[in-house]
Amino acid sequence: MATEQEKKSARASKKLTWHEILAMGGGVLLAIGLFLPWYNAENRRAGIIPGGGAGDFTGWEVHGIQRWLLLAAAAAPFILAYIVLRGHKLSWARGEMTAVTSIAAFGLIIYAGVIDRPGEVSGLVSLKWGWFVALLGVLAMLIGSALRASEVERARKPPGVL
């Protein structure tokens, strides 16, 4: 039989904390940010997408494979919330995999916006506010999931044991 303290801790572990809610809010921001303007092409020579011309372009329009990776990353906090609510046993700390996913999404967004902007002449392409919304969403996901993962006390192992 489980003691009253064990039952209480089991119920508490199945509740969402503000960490998961912050991460889910970040996932929503990332998903919405994909469909907001990320880039502005000053003229047709920028060549962001074939036949695109000048104007604003969303992250969804410009990035082929990356859009699906970012959309999958936006779903990670909701999977974490499902795991928490269902009380699944994991071999890693809850929130750890969501934090890793958030770091990968952060790298993709920074790479696409700062290091290698799309277009044939990337100097003619400027960042728009949708890119910043997606970046803010990823940072919220990272903070929320990292805080959730840090709550878990890891069992200590003797030296030499994997």
Summarize the structure.
The protein has 162 residues and is mostly helical.
Terminal Cα span: 31 Å
The total domain count is: 1
Mean pLDDT: 81
Strand order of the largest sheet: 2-1-3
Q: Enumerate how many helices there are, as a single number.
A: 6
What does the largest sheet look like? 3 strands, antiparallel
Helical percent range?
A: 55-70%
Overall, the morphology is: elongated
Order of helices and strands: HHEEHHHEH
| Class by alpha and beta content | mainly alpha
Radius of gyration: 20 Å
Unreliable stretches: none
Number of strands: 3
The oligomeric state is single chain
Strand content: 5-15%
Provide structural commentary:
By secondary structure, the chain is mostly helical. It has one domain. Helix content is 59%, strand content 7%. The chain has 6 helices and 3 strands; from the N terminus they run H-H-E-E-H-H-H-E-H. It has helices at 4-13, 18-34, 59-62, 65-86, 96-115, 129-150; strands at residues 37-41, 55-58, 125-127. A 3-stranded antiparallel sheet has the order 2-1-3. Helix 2 packs antiparallel against helix 4 and helix 4 packs antiparallel against helix 5 (96-115). The longest helix is centred in the middle third of the chain and has 22 residues, at 65-86. It is elongated. The mean pLDDT is 81.
